[in-house]
Amino acid sequence: KVKMSAARPFTGVTRKARYMQDMPPAGGFTPAPFHRYFPDKGFSGFTLVGLTFASYYMFGHCASRISGWKRRHHAWIRQYNKDIVPFLQAELDYDYLEQQHSIVEYEKLIMRDVPGWEPKTNHYYTRDWVAPRTQGTRSL
After folding, report:
1. Which residues of 84-109 are buried (b: 16+ CB within 10 A; e: fewer)?
2. What does the pLDDT look like over 6-31, one tens digit per residue?
3. What region does 33 belong to: left with phi over 0, alpha with psi -120 to 50, or beta?
4. CA dihedral of residues 128, 131, 136, 138 (deg, nearest 10)
5. DSSP result, 14-30
6. How far apart are CA 73 and CA 65, in angstroms?
7. For residues 136 and 9, what is the distance between their CA atoms, to the nearest angstrom?
């Protein structure tokens, strides 16, 4: 019969295990192939600060020159547009008059058999003038 003590239960029941410690082989392990590769020192702090300021200066200088060029270029384009708009409008008006003349002639041709039809009359109930459509009226 196995005696059990209250302070250390199961002490008489456990078997004694035979332990064997793992040891290195005779003569030791072979050396592990590792090496610490560190990069070169690189630029000093003074050089980095100098490069930073130089790049900021160059970027600011170039950006101000480019923005000035853009400003002058856009001003030139605006002035050019102001100068050419009357000529473009005159050309559009001429095209519109040609189209209206051809439309009236075509209307006369189509409606010649309809009694009481007058060409070029306003068929809309408005007295307001509406700007003519100059784009896409060639397909009418």
Report:
1. eeeeeeeeeeeeeeebeeeeeeeeee
2. 555 555 555 566 677 788 888 888 88
3. beta
4. 80
5. SPPP------PPTT-PP
6. 12
7. 103
